[in-house]
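Encode chain A's predicted structure.
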Amino acid sequence: MIKNIFASFTVSAVCVVGGLSATGAQPLLDMQAGVELSWPTVVSNTYQPQWASNPGGLWAALGGPSAGNGLTNTLYDPVASGVRNYRVLEMVPGSAPTAALPANSGFEQGSGTIASNWVVTTAAGGPVYGVRTNTSPRSGSFNFEVRVASTGAGPVVEFQQTGVPVTGSTAYPFTFYAKAVTGSAGHSAQWRIFWNAGGDTGYQGFAPGNNAYALISNSVVAPAGATAASIIFRVAGAAVPSQSATIQFDDVALGSGTSGPGSPVQTNVLAGSARPVARISWLTEAGAEYQASSTPHLSAGSWTNLPPVIIGDGGIEAILRPMTQAAEFIRVATQAPPEPPTNMVPLFDASTPLEAPISIDTPTARYTYIADRARDRHAREADFNSYDHYLSWYWEQRMANIEIIDRVGKAGQPQHITFNYTTQDLLNPAEFRTFFRGISTVAEYNNNQIATLVSSNPSATPGETDYNYTATVTQNANDGNRALAIGDRVEIEISMFLNAPRHGRNNYYGTTLLYVVGQGIVPWAQGNDMGFNGGIVGNVNQSLDSYPLPTNAWLGGLTTLPYQYSNEPEHRFKQLAGNIAPTNGLPFMLGRRLHHTDFGDGSHSEAGNPIFTEHVGQLGPKFINRSCVECHINNGRALPAGVGTPLTKWVFKVGSEASGSPHPTLGSVLQPQSTSGPNEGNVSIASHTTTNGQYGDATPYSLQKPNYAFTSNAPTFFSARIAAQLVGLGLLEAVSETSILALADPDDTNADGISGRPQIVTDPVTLQPRLGRFGHKAGQARVRHQVASALNTDMGVTTAVFPKLDGETNGGPAELGDTDLDRMTRYVALLGVGARRNLADAQALQGEQLFASASCVKCHTPTLTTSAHHPMTELRSQTIHPYTDLLLHDMGPGLADNMGEGAASGSEWRTAPLWNIGLTAGVSGGEGYLHDGRARTLEEAILWHGGEAEASKEAFRNLSAADRAALIKFLKSL
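Encoded structure for chain A:
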């Protein structure tokens, strides 16, 4: 099927001239005039586009800051009319400013009109302001401007920087530059310094230069015991109508500059390149291919393709075309997504019942819903190692369901945010904290409230009571208690100080959440990881404050976790998704309990938790291990065992022939342990076969392949599989079949040597053909099927999905009921994905480019979008970065075993997701990669690639040592 979308435009007009869909209806096409801004970038520098209606006036940020990648960056500004001037600020970390600004200047650091290290504390009287500007800096790119305009009362503006480090009993030169812009009249200007050990200089007058910067120089002595100073400037106007003054400040320094809170960065102003463009956009169909082409005349019959081909993801796609005087006609032809093979049935479609959304935007308010859990300590307390771990009885009375009602920016509504939350024990006290401070401790907030208990009622959770609390935030406590505004950052911590829980401790804290006004809950990082290193600024420790992570760090979309600061790397894969819904909070915890339960004796893997009596005696009769977590170490990869050690964290698929048909006595999986009767024999690594090689620069390396020994019943055909990490599985289930099939090229029609193909499996419940996604050879279609399969073969526990034990022909009543299976499924599906790190690291960014240029991205697809039809609201419509295409690829003889699975041959493996691969060592306590853990390092994992990946492997092998290190640094940033 081919359908065309047409559009034409000139410099002054844009119009749609035609287009038919497959049904004959005209497709919806949106065309908008705007401006494309482009500028060259340098890796490790940061860029902030800005616009202004007057180049001599104030400049406003256009979008957010972005990291340079060595290429030309672009930004589309949808401006239909009016005059806009554009420029781009280039921040160069680690370099002195162009004019060597003193260390305490502060005006080079900030965003828009806000200076990072300075805060306006007083602005009263007539029309007044104090802002960071670019009007006429003495040096660098920024200065600070104060305007006081009298309307009959004496206006005043006061601004200050606090926390400037000093040494007691030391004399310091105090210098700054100031000028009074022409027309300023009737004003007075003063400076003052407070010392934290007591005492101050008092207000000291000074005279700004007359339309030219004057140097004001003084000497001050810090009193004994002083460790910090606050620098204050005050400008007052006369109580005379129609008089005004504009005073500009720059290059403020207390001392030689060596005592300042860090060096400012060099800031360059780039002109950029702006051109008028038309943006042509349309709603895509997931998996469909779109090719835009153009012609100057519809009657010419000759069309020129406008690369690249766009693969639809179900969202909006767009192209930009320059606005010229001559008419240009654009055609967008689309090829329908490939038909599912063998009548494959999608898991979800438009008829799938959906769970309630976690975000709703209405004309009067924006509603956000999220679940929270009790914590032992606070997020930033690295010394205690007690934030991400779980305390005893974590599934009972230790969850909170939160509703956030955000009315800021809604016309006619009170401009505040209401937080309603429910717990299952009375709180004592109900402490509610917002707006991080972090000066005295790393767990300090500027707004500390006691939430109001509104009501209590019988809970939907059997045997529990719901206690309903509310708290309202009306001001930004981190910015002078001004009114809340769209985009404000509100860090939240709800303390769950339980009054009288039935079991376990009663003293708990809550998760540190970052809410952005008008947007919702987002993953965050500390300021010092985001380039904000100002230390104490105003009443906030900027270096530790929370800032939204840029979206390229959201590997799991909104399920992505904040950065971890509690020094608990082993717990990173155990966390709730960052956007987990209230309806899934408790099921997640109950599923976690099952995940950690020994199905033999009912014990919990973590101390202080009771025996789960309902599941005692369900293990076996034959099994591999006793609980899920015994194989999936901290929900991460299992590590290879030593020579001669029984492999109890592996699954050995066995068969009677190369196609993988079940073994006549062993079934489909070797089960080396039993609760009664003989087991099927143990397997261990007998030795390793070592292969030596060298990189292109002659650096040697060695690879090792395990050789296995069976104690009895040695199968001729088998495939070894080590336990894999579990995060992100729900998101992979949510990717539509059409999106995955669009990446397949089983016949290598584009002759690039890559021929990924889907694995089609039979749904064990409906018996329908499905797209395989999970397991090393994509043998299962759903997370539920994967969990049920592991229960069956790994622990000998039956479910309704797999009621017959491995190797048996008759089934019986399910040992694990549907409710418990659903809880385990939700737990695995909703584990949070760690965020990408090293976002501005030049080596990691170079490695990302090398990863792409080596064609690794042809299989390890960086970006996918999940379907809008998955039942779990957390997983729907997320842009994710799993680095997999979920397809089978022939990896060559080096990685081949001698037995297939389904349609997959012994040498074919599903592309392994790479997200969070850099956290392996911390989570698992060591490294072991590939399907059998043979690769001791990421370098070895790459060097084992062959078959379709041979060219990419060779590209890596022939890189310089520095480039190899950069590529590995990139992988470890994921």
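The radius of gyration is 32 Å.
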